[in-house]
Amino acid sequence: MSIPGYGGKIVKINLTTSSITTEDISRDLARLFVGGKGLGTYLLLENLRNWNVDPLSSDNVLVIASGPFNGTMIPLGIRATLVFKSPLTGIYGESVIGGSFGAFMKWVGVDALVITGKAEKPMYIFIDDDRIELRSAEHIWGKGIFKTEDILHEELGKNISILAIGPAGENLVRFAAVGHEYYRQAGRCGGGAVMGSKNLKAIAIKTSRREVSYHDEERVRDIVLELHKKIKENPSIQSYAARGTPGFVEKANVLGFFPTKYWSKVRFEKFKNIIWESLGKYRVGKRTCYGCPVACHQYIEINEPPYANVKVTLEYETIFALGGLCEIDDIRAIAYMNMLMDDYGIDTITGGNVLAFAIEAYQRGKLKSEKELKYNDPDSMCWLLERIVKRVDIGDLLAEGVAKAANVLGLKDIAVHVKGLEPPGYDPRTLKGMILSYAVSPRGACHLRLMGYHADLMGLGGGRFSTGKEKVEVLVDLENRGIFYDSLPVCKFGRFIFDWDVMRDLLNAVTGFNYDIEELRTIANRIRTLIRVFNVKLGIKKENDYLPRRFLKETVEYDGKMYRVTEEELNNMLNTYYELRGWNSKGIPTEDTLRKLGIDTLLRKWGIKF
Ligand code: SF4
């Protein structure tokens, strides 16, 4: 019997054998892992025969999961979650994408795609309502993401949603992104390289269906009406609607947490050149994810020398990575580089970190380059970017990411990453919630798992400089909510209005599962702990829940005072976090925790000793 809120099918595609099989999603699986991140994590571990597999080998598994809110009337309820073993970090990899793909999956009845193997020649997956086929992608291989989308739209007609990789993914750049609707990306952790390693250029879904099933449609409608009111009244959400995330650049500089000059400062002297007042005049419209009334993406067009035909939606993280870390003070140059990266299929956060690291390495005489590499020099950065994408000369080493490049160059001491993932735009020395956020996020340095910056800026758990138990409790709760946002799904800008009560009421009205909040928290802990088990089996231990040396040894100045992270702050936060999660003092989930969460049964089923 079909489950309200679900498409109903899990589709398994083996690109080596071209086999496509479909199975029904069971009620138990839906209830225990919900969708999106939860469902994707379960399916990754269930289908990854060998957890020690090389992430770029045909044995890696790419799961793309939808969730019960996708394609419904729920505002901000739109995301698809990509789960895989990361070629950048070698551990759990995950990336979440807005746009429309999650909704299209739902409308064609697919809760998850499980993609294994490697096609002999470039292929793309085409899902046309109930028909699924593999098609040659030789005519689009080598093309940028924009052109790829253009060609597929022309070829396949209307009502299409596409995920695609660009040359970076094809060339196995370890931080290659998956692009969608030109300006959206599943950026982090190298999902684009996983697709490239499988000779999978794109996935296109075509459907004119829009029906979804609800357990109690009237109840959903009532809650949705309330949510629309809250969206209009919430100043934080309205600020995203007016200026998008670029509106945050000024605040980050004024409050002194804007990483600058490869993590050596927390304020960019020329920040006024890259704030909304400089960018806003180029806005010609807005873009939105399916059904979202916020429409936070500010669509920019620039046509003034030396830049022509620049079209992009610019985000805070890209402005930080290129403007802050590389000290580029021309917003037009940042927009241009953003467009290049979107078309190449590069994660702009890691991309900006890699470029700034290369400048530091060059200036310290450790990296030889035929072109001078320096701060605030978009020309040399564009030159280097192309070499990275093509894996030419020094670009080949830098395409491995900061951690691997730093090992080769003998620059581990200056490299900024956690577990191999380069951080986004929040310096933990002056935004202390980010200490734990970076240290324990299962995919490496990430702001969107524990959302420490949100806690800090909202004054939760004792404020931005607090590192005590009350802060850790807030962060665990935010992480649990975040796991649900990525599983239901809900865009994380919805965090201001989607509290536990709203999530429970909506989820019950959509699915009829009759959850209580305690069960939701248990599910979040199950998903979190299962990912920890996977990472521990891959060698992660307490020593890896650590921050880069520079955050602990080098100070930054803010408001006349010097700041760093102390060992005591980090250790206290870690110990409290482990305790709240039911892990031992070394960060290993205890037997009791595994049993309470039902993970011991799963591990036995999968033949995993822990
Ligand atoms: S707020 Fe922005 S990112 Fe979130 S769903 Fe709406 S348009 Fe997409």
Characteristic key phrases:
globular, 610 residues, 3 domains, Aldehyde Ferredoxin Oxidoreductase,  A, domain 1, binds iron/sulfur cluster, Aldehyde Ferredoxin Oxidoreductase Protein, subunit A, domain 3, Aldehyde Ferredoxin Oxidoreductase Protein, subunit A, domain 2, 25 helices, single chain, alpha+beta, six-stranded mixed beta sheet
Chain-wise SSE layout:
Layout (H helix, E strand, L loop, with lengths): L8 E6 L4 E6 L2 H7 L2 H12 L14 E4 L14 E6 L6 E6 L3 H7 L2 E7 L6 E6 L2 E6 L8 H12 L3 E5 L2 H4 L7 E3 L3 E3 L4 H7 L2 E7 L10 H17 L1 H9 L4 H7 L21 H4 L3 E5 L9 E8 L2 E7 L2 H9 L6 H14 L3 H16 L14 H13 L3 H5 L3 H8 L23 H8 L11 H6 L11 H17 L14 H12 L5 H21 L11 H5 L2 E3 L2 E3 L3 H15 L9 H6 L2 H8 L4
Parallel strand pairs: 1-6, 7-12
Antiparallel strand pairs: 1-2, 3-4, 3-6, 4-5, 7-8, 9-10, 9-12, 10-11, 13-14, 14-15, 16-17
Helix pairs in contact: 1-2, 2-21, 7-20, 11-12, 11-13, 12-14, 17-23, 19-21, 19-23
Detailed description of the structure:
The protein has 610 residues and is α+β, with helices and mostly antiparallel strands. It folds into three domains: 9-206, Aldehyde Ferredoxin Oxidoreductase,  A, domain 1 (4-Layer Sandwich), CATH 3.60.9.10; 239-382, Orthogonal Bundle (Aldehyde Ferredoxin Oxidoreductase Protein, subunit A, domain 2); 433-496 and 516-606, Aldehyde Ferredoxin Oxidoreductase Protein, subunit A, domain 3 (Orthogonal Bundle). The chain has 25 helices and 17 strands. Strands 2-1-6-3-4-5 form a six-stranded mixed β-sheet, sandwiched between helices. Strands 8-7-12-9-10-11 form a six-stranded mixed β-sheet, sandwiched between helices. Strand 10 and strand 11 (184-186) form a beta hairpin. Helix 1 crosses helix 2 (36-47), helix 7 packs antiparallel against helix 20 (500-511) and helix 11 crosses helix 12 (331-344). 58% of the residues are buried. The model has no long low-confidence stretch (mean pLDDT 97). Bound molecules: iron/sulfur cluster. Iron/sulfur cluster binds at residues 76, 78, 98, 240, 288-289, 292, 294-297, 491, 493.
